[in-house]
Amino acid sequence: MIRSYRKTDLEEMVKIWYEASVIAHFFIPASFWASQKNAMKEEYLPLAENFVFEEEGQISGFISLVGKHVCALFVAPEMQGRGIGRALLEYAKTLKGRLSLKVYRENESAFHFYEKCGFVATGEEIDEYTGCAQILMEWK
C-alpha cells in the first residue's frame, strides 16, 4: 500500500535512505551520507511531499517530491527488485502528470531503471555537494 508519510515514519525513511545510498552510491564515501542524516530527517524530508510503500506495517520504500521533481526514491536494499520503486514512481506519475529528477551518472542501475520507466536524459550537471556528475531526466 502506498500512503502519505507520517512524522513517525521519518526514522525508518532515513534508515532506508542511508542504507540504500551507501550501496547505490559506492563512488561517494559513506561518511558523506552519514553526515547528511540529520539534514534528511530535520530539513529535506519534512519539506517534501512524501509517500511510503508499506506492507504489513513495515515501510520498505519511499518517494519524495517537490512540485513535479522527484527528490528521492529509495527502497530498502533487501526489498529491491520487487517492483516497489516502480510502484512509487507510477503513483507519482498519476499525481503529477510530469516528473523530473537527477541521477548520478555512475549509478548506472538507477539510470537504466528510470529509462525503463519512461524517463529520458535531458542534460547533465555537477552536484555541488559531491562533485559527481548528475544526469537530468524527465518523464512526460
Automatic annotation (TrEMBL):
Residues 1-140 form the N-acetyltransferase domain. The lineage of its organism: Archaea, Methanobacteriati, Methanobacteriota, Stenosarchaea group, Methanomicrobia. Its EC number is 2.3.1.-. It comes from Methanosarcina barkeri MS. GO terms for molecular function: acyltransferase activity, transferring groups other than amino-acyl groups. This is Acetyltransferase. Keywords: Acyltransferase, Transferase. InterPro entries: Acyl_CoA_acyltransferase, GNAT_dom. It comes from the Archaea. It is an enzyme of class 2 (transferase).
